[in-house]
Amino acid sequence: MTCVLVWAVLASSIGSGFQHGYNTGVLNAPQKVIETWMNETWHMDDSELTIIWSTTTSIMCIGGIIGGALTSLLSNWIGRRKTLILNNFIAAAAGIIMGGSKYVNQPWMLILGRLIIGINAGLNAGVGPMYLSEISPMELRGAIGSMYQLVITISILVAQAVSINKVLGTETLWPILLFLVLIPAGYQILGMLTSPESLKYLLETNEDEKALSESVRLFGEEQGPINLDLIKNEIEDSRLLPKVTMRDMLHVAKYRRPLIIMCLLMGAQQLSGINAVIYYSTHIFKTADLSEENAQIATVGVGLVNVITTIFSVFLVEMVGRKPLLIIGFAGMTLDLSLLLVCLYYVESIAILAYAAVVLVYLFIILFAIGAGSIPWIMGSELFATAARPLALSVAVPANWFFNFVVGLIFLPLQKILGPAVFLIFIVSQAFATVYFHIKIPETKNRPIDEITALFE
Ligand SMILES: *[C@@H]1O[C@H](CO)[C@@H](O)[C@H](O)[C@H]1NC(C)=O
């Protein structure tokens, strides 16, 4: 581990993951004050306001799809490093538009800013982990790769902590919450300007000398040339792999079957209701009769539990294996949400159930983080032969954003119509997921890919 490597890992993981996580969590607590402001300009009735608010939070995912689609284009054209740098100008523009909206009294600017920050998140989610894996020495790739996910969960926590109404989530201060994205943007610009370009990109664009000097910077005089040779070999090996086209993906059983599983995993991950909980936990806690203030503190606790469990799950996945965790997670979440539903129904008559609801939300986060949260991404890549992985991801990532968007958009309106019964949608889909994945998914841990592929054939 050289200083340059640590510097580059921090600049890329914190700079990218922070925007992604922070903006996922930041609108949760100040929903009320921002809604009130929007209503002052647009004078909406209750259901219109609900739809506008749901659009404001979830339009970020549409941006995510756009950003994801731009990932390979930009990162192959101007390089990983410049894409990451450029992306911060997108974030800065979004921050100024979102925060500025209040001062010029234009709610549509907040919605536009959320779309733009989504593009930023989509690019970050694509290029951040790519850059991280391409600058890491082989033996550290797994550990450094999980940095991105960890930063996301930590920054969701940060967002929840600074956005409670004791801190910045107030009528006058909430724009600052949105201007805050300028800080990580500035940090990443400075950090990446002084970081090396991805060695893989330099080799692919035939800048061999530059690649060697950057490799020496990253890994030292001795390891630099050795690691560079390893990367050269990897590039050679990948040129020898058979080409997998989208047509193959859809027609050849060994690709099509895992592709269906992977898309269903992404759907099930979002239909678990996790973002309903992340976006709206304050709201859920208030439904459970906590005071506004206690509800916000309980929401910060959600972020904290998420961080701790995510760290823990990195080890758990290697010990227990993928499939048991996935099934335990989905079965547990089905049961947990069923109980939560009962609590929310009877909370009016039995006050103590409010606290049971809070416990169940926490347990839900734990079950999500050990199973549905992390496993689909790990398994997703393990179900495919190396040659098919990038293409499979190019389907799975937008699928994930899309399901995220749909759940974010429909949750509040449906909750208005159905009340707590809205959770039935999540319960039913999780029950289905538990059974389906139990039957259809093979364990992938410590199993060669040939064996897994043979199963699908
Ligand atoms: C929004 O504004 C309208 C009219 O100004 C008002 O009738 C309504 O109650 C407000 N809604 C909320 C949720 O504040």
TrEMBL record:
Signal peptide: 1-17
Keywords: Cell membrane, Membrane, Signal, Transmembrane, Transmembrane helix, Transport
Top-rank taxon, per record: Eukaryota
Domain Major facilitator superfamily (MFS) profile span(s) in chain numbering: 9-445
A single cellular component GO annotation: plasma membrane
Coiled coil: none
TM region(s), chain numbering: 52-73, 85-104, 110-132, 144-162, 174-193, 259-280, 295-317, 324-347, 353-379, 391-411, 417-439
Compartment annotation: Cell membrane
Record GO biological process: fructose import across plasma membrane
Membrane topology: Multi-pass membrane protein
Major localization class: membrane
Any one GO molecular-function label of the UniProt entry: fructose transmembrane transporter activity
UniProt-listed PANTHER family: FACILITATED GLUCOSE TRANSPORTER PROTEIN 1 (PTHR23503:SF8), SOLUTE CARRIER FAMILY 2 (PTHR23503)
NCBIfam families referenced in this protein's UniProt entry, alphabetically: SP (TIGR00879)
Similarity-based family: Belongs to the major facilitator superfamily. Sugar transporter (TC 2.A.1.1) family.
Protein name: Major facilitator superfamily (MFS) profile domain-containing protein
Organism: Nesidiocoris tenuis
